[in-house]
Every structure is written in C-alpha cells, then in structure tokens.
Amino acid sequence: MTLRKFVPLILLLILVGVGAAYVLHFTTKGSVEIFDSGLEISPESFSVDIAKGGHYVKEITIRNTGEEKEIYFEDVVEGADSKAIDVTYHTTDGATISSSKKLTVPAGTSDSPAEVIVNVHIDVDEDAPKGEYTVYIQARS
C-alpha cells in the first residue's frame, strides 16, 4: 500500500483528535414570554432619604384596565450592602402580600380602571453602610 491511501485516514484521525480536545464549559438559553398586561403603577419611581434604623412607607397605586389579576411583588436591592434593606408589601388594611398570599387586583376598563393601593415598607438596618441604594420592584402573577 502506498502512503496516499493512508492520507485520508490520517486526516480523519487528526480531525477527531482536534474535536475531542474541544471543551464546552457551558451553554445557556433564555425564554421570553410577552403578554398583554393592563396593569400600570404610579409613581413609576421615587427617591427617599432614610436614616440608619429607619422605616419608610411609600404608597403606590396599581391601575388595572384588563382582566382580574392576582399578583405579588419581588424586589432586588443594589447598593453597598443589599441585605441591609428589607422591603415588604402590604395592603392598606395591613395584610402582607407575598407569593403565597397574593393581592387581587379587580378587573377594569380603559374608561374605568380598577385601582388598588399598596404600601411598600422599606426598613434599614441599624448598621447599614451609608450610600445610595436602588430597589427594583417587580409585580408577578
């Protein structure tokens, strides 16, 4: 046999060797679901100065121009020590809103939106580092 007959076999072995050396560290995939939401919130943002150990309550209004929804809130705190700030959500009668105890927002129309008031409670630890913090709030169903 001549060496020419072995060249394709040698090239194949080289390609298999290179392929075997390739290491995949990770792969990720995200899915996004887009849906109509008749919910609006006001104010859309706010700023507040809170002293260490302080407690602040911000009233927000949720307007619904769609079907009745059951929602709860999640938040992300960014800043020097995100664990130094605690955010909770309550109805006007004091009931806590959570993933297991959702808030019912009645149905409404664009001519007559349903409105629900939610109290956002922000508590700051006594030993919280000074600085600026940002709280992102999301409504989930």
Rounded mean pLDDT is 84
- Helix/strand structural class: mainly beta
Strand order of the largest sheet: 1-2-6-4
Order of helices and strands: HEEEEEEE
Largest sheet: 4 strands, antiparallel
Unreliable parts: none
Q: Tell me the total number of β-strands.
A: 7
**Level of helix content?**
10-25%
Strand content: 35-45%
Rg calc: 27 Å
Instruction: Give me the number of helical elements.
Output: 1
Report what the structure shows.
The mean pLDDT is 84. Helices cover 13% and strands 37% of the residues. The protein has one helix and seven strands, in the order αβββββββ. The strands form two sheets. The chain has a four-stranded antiparallel β-sheet with strand order 1-2-6-4, with no helix packed on it. It has a three-stranded antiparallel β-sheet with strand order 5-3-7, with no helix packed on it. The chain is mainly beta and 141 residues long. It starts with a helix and ends with a strand.
Brief rundown of the structure:
The chain has 141 residues and is mostly beta strands. It has one helix at 3-21; strands at 39-42, 55-64, 69-78, 85-91, 103-105, 114-124, 134-140.
Features:
about 140 residues; mainly beta; 4-stranded antiparallel β-sheet
Per-chain topology:
Layout: H1 3-21, E1 39-42, E2 55-64, E3 69-78, E4 85-91, E5 103-105, E6 114-124, E7 134-140
Antiparallel strand pairs: 1-2, 2-6, 3-5, 3-7, 4-6
